[in-house]
Design a protein that fits this description.
Helix-turn-helix domain-containing protein, mainly alpha
């Protein structure tokens, strides 16, 4: 028991949060805090069957266990290549044919005069 009292010489080491405090820290409803304790996802100090207290370490352990690393930006990503358009070269050849047919029409019309 002496070891426990030695730990509490520093006032910050003896802090116990209520369920309301933990709910405010985690930005969750109190009912969710009780549910997490029942599911053994959040550790607590059980004072009585109805009274629970939480150490800062227990709260931090829950936060750490549910934290995810930030997403990594990949700068070396390749651009997406799209499939070639249907009739890709045919469009250019149609334009050339149209120019040729216009030129041939001009020639024919010049012969009429």
């Amino acid at each position: 028991m002496k070891n426990d009292s030695a730990k509490c010489d520093d006032r910050a080491a003896c802090i116990l949060y209520t369920d309301s405090d933990v709910a405010n820290i985690l930005l969750l409803p109190k009912k969710m805090i009780h549910k997490l304790v029942r599911e053994k996802k959040l550790a607590c100090v059980q004072i009585t069957p109805r009274i629970r207290r939480f150490t800062p370490e227990q709260v931090q352990q829950y936060i750490d266990s549910h934290s995810t690393p930030p997403p990594v930006d990949k700068k070396d990503s390749r651009p997406v290549s799209s499939p070639p358009r249907k009739g890709g070269d045919a469009k250019e050849s149609r334009l050339e044919k149209a120019k040729d047919s216009w030129a041939s029409l001009k020639k024919e019309m010049s012969r009429w005069t």
